[in-house]
């Protein structure tokens, strides 16, 4: 799918991968709307890269309904949705971990939010001659990281949903489903994970995402994720042990 002269929504577009892919898509001749919860952050980002913005909390049903209504009214040619907004907690499972509350927040943002937004935007996307949904998951979508246990759960769920959605929509729509699985990226959200020391620049991720979509690759790997994926399917037990070496 060639992404040029398209209208694109990027959730969580005020920073990190969302900001980088929004900026690149604008440079490639697309109209981009970024969304997020922080008005000041969004306005600043939008001015910097030349995007439109809509303040919206993807975990709030009423806020999302308002976002969708706004898009239907003012951006009726929307043809690409990039589900990028995410949250993750660095911790280990065990007594006193408060895993349920952490998991609830992670699933609300990383799984239920994109599932809701996709369903609500399907009628609009189906009107376009060509459309795409891009779900940003993670390398932990195919094997868990013990210091991101419930984040891994949520991204695994979104991976499964992406596969089912791709198969479902392929029979009677022109909507393509892309899944992006990055390894560690240097963003504000990954500081506690060593992102500043070991993560790839978000601009690298944006370039890989753009190239993958243009090449119609359903699954787009960024950084080390491609090799990790190959290692996992060659020997799952060994790959998981290597991935979590020194963490448990």
TrEMBL record:
Keywords per UniProt: Oxidoreductase
SUPFAM superfamilies: NAD(P)-binding Rossmann-fold domains
Entry keyword annotation includes Cytoplasm: no
Pfam families per record: adh_short (PF00106)
One term under GO cellular component: membrane
GO molecular function, one term: oxidoreductase activity
Family recorded in the similarity comment: Belongs to the short-chain dehydrogenases/reductases (SDR) family.
Name this protein carries in UniProt: SDR family NAD(P)-dependent oxidoreductase
Native source organism of the sequence: Mucilaginibacter terrenus
